Amino acid sequence: MSAQITVPNLTEFRRVSPFRCVGVPGASELAADSRLAIAALLVFFSALPLGSNPANGQVLAPFLNSPQRESDESTESKLDAKPKAEAATSGEDDKPVVAAPADTGAVFKTLASRVEQSQLSDEDKAATLATIAQGESQLAEIQTQQKLVDERTDTLSIVPQRAKKLTEKLSELTKFKPALPEDQTLPNLEVQLANADAELVIAKKAASDAETAMARATGRHREIETELPALQEKLTTLTVKDEASDAEKAASLLAQAKRAETQVAVKLVTARIAALNAEAALLAAEVAANMPQLRRDVAVRQSENLQAQNDLIKTAVEKKRAVEAAKRVESANEQLATLHPALQPIGEKNKKLAKDSQTLAKDIEAVRLLLEERTLKLEQLESSLKQAETRVDTVGLTDAVGAMLRNLKQGLPSAGEFHLRAAERQTLINDTQYELFELTDLRNKRLELMVDQIFATANPPMSLQQRADLSGEAKELLQQQRADFLDPAIRTQTNYFNALVSLSTVEQQILKTVESIRLYVDERVLWVRSTKPLTSQLSQWFQNREPEASQLMPSSDEGWFLHSAAWDGAWQRLFDEVKRRFFLWLASVVALIALLRLRVSLRKEIADLGHQVSQAGYTRFGPTMKTILLTVLTAAPLFLIFAFLSWRLHAVAGGITGMNALSRAAFAFALGYFPAEILRQICRPKGLAESHFALPSNKVAIVRRNMRLILFIVIPLLTAASFLDTSGLAFGRDTLTRCFFIAAMIALALIVARLFNPQHGVFSQFIRSRPTGWAARLVFVWYPLLIGLPVALAILALVGYYFTSQQLGWRLYRSTVALSILSVVSLLVLRWAMLRRRQLKIDELRQRRAAAAESAANSDAPPELLDENSIDLSSQVQQTRQILQTAMIVFGLAWLWVVWKDVVPALGLFDRWPLWESTKTISEIVPTDDGGSITRTRDVPEKITIADVGFSLLSFGLMIVAIRDLPGLLDFAVLRRLPFDRSTRYAITSLTTYLIAMLGLIVCCYGIGLRWNQIQWMATALTFGLAFGLQEMFANFIAGIIILFEQPIRVGDVVEIDGVTGVVSRIRIRATTITSWDRKDYIVPNKEFITGKLLNWTRSDEIARLTLEVGIAYGANTNLARDLLLKAANDHTEVLSEPPPIASFEQFGDNSLNYKLRVYIKSYEKRFHVSHDLHTAVNDLFAEAKIEISFPQRDLHLRTVPEPMLKQIVEHAASVAKPDVAKD
């Protein structure tokens, strides 16, 4: 059947046919028939034959008549005009294309053929062919849409018959009664049970699908109403585009292809509109005939009938199993009484197998009942989830849907109970499986071996003749045991094992469904308004300022707000509770009274301990831990009173609303009071903060005063809000609850403003001492943020998001308590580290004083006095502080994740706002024609949302923190405990830093949709470009990596390069820093160490040789001088005994006898000190031995010259000088 469908307006259709779904088949038959007639007429009168007139030369015949286009000329093809010559691109004139009337695809085929024969550029040819391919695909889609119209039109005509058949089928199913043939065997019943279970699963799935389809019927109507205007708008746009292209009369092949493609797109959109209208008509007809409800009723009834039949078969199987088990027990007892004594073990085993099977039959029944209960629970949860998804998709996240989702979450079963039972059941499954293996092994054991084992254990021992006589009977008994006892026992054990596995599977599915529901609700319900804005409720409340007495009652039957009788019943329950648990109440009251009386003495002892630890040089950590215990005990009495009352009131409340409200209010007070009171007691004078943690007393007083305000203002207001929230008061409960909550949040905001004021608050001194720090620079950020948190919660409650404010407030409270605990723990660890360092320093000081006193006793000089205050403890705990800070960050983040993980799914709302699109490559397995399969990759679109960008930013921040702190933590916590030297540890931490940076960047790029296959071309280009442009930097980078792995130099090595000697202090990506002996940093590019010459004094080891040259005067005792040199070397503590020092007489000098003293020292860095000490010692020893250290000498001898000789010398000198004078 081929038809053209006009586009009727769905709104008009509903206006003409305003009937509603009929609840019962047969009711309002006239209305249903009328709706069917109207729907059929709408389709019938719009049906026209599809084709094209061969006489008019059109490219494409009109497929559908659009309401927006009354003129046929706008829908006809305009390709009959002669195209302009494409002289620039082809050597011939293009002629207009005429479509074959019988084949609309011939237009694109002709165009494609002409494109292939033309001389178009590659770019134009590709664009034209792509347009043609798109038009051809749209033609195929038009045929698909036409088929949908035909199918829906055909289905529409038989809706009454289908509805009648469903009604008749439902009537037949209603008359069904489960039945079973009599005298069936147990194996036959078990096969029927397995088949019934499989059919029941299919029927339940069908019923669930029918339920979902019925719920989505209304939603589909709304989807059609949304899709139709969009398609109408698209149709208008394409029509305008078609008319514009027709007016241009372009002659190029690309323009012709685009015009044809546009016309086909118009037909496709029109076809889609027709298909949607046909679907709407079919849906309306089915709703009128009550088809969705009938399908659901039939599917549910089939499921119920199969369930009834399944239950009947299960009952028969259980009865049959019980009867056969009893028969086997009876048969085993009778057999045991008649057996030969040597064959009694076979009878005992048969009896045990029969009794075990009988017990397992009862266990199977218990597991089956529990399985049915769990299966029903699973079906309810899955149905609730589907119902919630359907309502959210259909209605949206309205206030009513939000309330429904919150109630759904509150009704979820506890996951902890299922986890506990799952662990126990897994143990039972393992035991059952082991027993099944044992039975199977026994079943498969050879009879001869079993007979020999029985005869070998017989008592008294059996002769060979007796064994031969009883061997045949024993084998017959074992054969009978296999058939009558072992095989049934294995079947029973298998059934029990399968039942346990099924139960475990269902419970695992329940856990997964519960988690799915929890995640689904948490992702949506947090941002849904839970009640009306407070302003509207207050106006409504003040308009009804005189409510009736019934409005002051709770909604439950047992009112309590005004009824004294209800209170009498509550007090009677509490009195009975005290009598029943008298000793518990007595012990609790006595303990609380004792604790209250001890508070004064506890405070005094805290002050005494604070005075004790404040003394100079105190090193014990025990008093600090004792103070913590005393502080908790001081803060505990009132908390324990309210916690105990909440516990016992909840135990006896039952259905009394008032007692439940009091119990919850007492618990809320205890929960809020205890942390604040502990913090207040920590900050008491001479308490933990002031005396032990050495915090400023004025700042401690600020915390103490603000904690008192929280205890006396905020906590009572929140307690009142909690009491009213569960009071059940019908009039004004929500209004009063939110008023108290908002008042508490405003008070908390004012307290936070006082506590963290940058000028006078607890951090004011810290900010003033670091005016350029982050805390001072960002004070305009964190201070308003801290104040704004409680204000934001108050605003949320005011505008109706009270549930949201409660959830966020509860998590902020837990986060604050966790951060406070971490702060106290970090202060405790710092206190312990400081005391430990102080103890070590004091021990060292005592040793040095003892050594100085001993030295003074052996000499006349006074002992050296050391100043204890000169010891700088703060610098020694700095490393511990940094490691502790890192550890606290890790624990803090972990705790915050535990606290906020339930709220994190709500951030999935940001995952619905895409920012841009990317592509990712996926792998899929595709079957081949030969029956095999191949793995194929393809690119799929991926939307990058706000959540993805936030994840990348968070990953980048964590990467920065990890780069800064994780290598140091690795070095302190792990590497220093391993046999690594300093340079190896430095190399590992450096490579760890690079690895963290690389992985962090990969995660960040992955989060925003950057995949390697997308950016590898850019990375390659950048790599080549940078390699040529920055080749020196790349060479230094590679050299740095080589240095870290090959280690020609290491951090701490003493090296000499380009005449500079120093210690390697840092190895970075580009350059290495060498600190010279003058404490100057010498920056050397890394490639210099790889390509140049380098002298490493400590490469193999740190042992260095030191040479001293000494010259003594001629005539000195040479042997004594050598012995004294060796004595000076051996007496020095830094000189190694192996290799031993060497003193040698080297040569006779001009003025001295030259000696050389060669010694080996532990470290090259100590050579200056050792050289000084050795020179001093040699000088002292030589002076004591009267050995003179020579120095350069010259003897000048003068004598008198005779007078005649003197004259001759003068005259000779004058004659020699005369020629020079003449030249001048």
UniProtKB/TrEMBL annotation:
Provide the coiled-coil residue spans: 371-398
According to the entry, every stretch annotated as the Mechanosensitive ion channel MscS domain falls at 1033-1099
This chain's protein is named Mechanosensitive channel MscK
Native source species: Stieleria marina
Q: Which Pfam families match?
A: MS_channel_2nd, MS_channel_3rd, MscS_porin, MscS_TM
| Family statement | Belongs to the MscS (TC 1.A.23) family.
Residue ranges constituting the Mechanosensitive ion channel inner membrane domain according to the UniProt record: 583-916
Q: Which UniProt keywords apply?
A: Cell membrane, Coiled coil, Membrane, Transmembrane, Transmembrane helix
Please give the start and end residues of each transmembrane region. Answer: 582-600, 628-647, 653-674, 709-729, 735-757, 778-803, 815-834, 951-974, 986-1009, 1015-1045
> Got a GO cellular component term for this one?
plasma membrane
InterPro entries attached to this UniProt entry: LSM_dom_sf (IPR010920), MS_channel_C (IPR049278), MscS-like_channel (IPR052702), MscS_beta-dom_sf (IPR023408), MscS_channel_2nd (IPR006685), MscS_channel_C_sf (IPR011066), MscS_IM_dom1 (IPR025692), MscS_porin (IPR024393)
Listed SUPFAM superfamilies: Mechanosensitive channel protein MscS (YggB), C-terminal domain, Sm-like ribonucleoproteins
The Basic and acidic residues compositionally biased stretches are: 69-85
Has the keyword Ligase been applied to this entry? Answer: no
Q: What is its main location?
A: membrane
Q: In what residue span(s) does the Mechanosensitive ion channel MscS porin domain sit? A: 115-344
Membrane topology designation: Multi-pass membrane protein
Extract the signal peptide range. none
Q: Which GO molecular function annotations are given, in alphabetical order? A: mechanosensitive monoatomic ion channel activity
According to the UniProt record, where is the region Disordered? Answer: 66-98
List, for all copies, the residue spans of the domain called Mechanosensitive ion channel MscS C-terminal: 1107-1189
Location within or outside the cell: Cell membrane
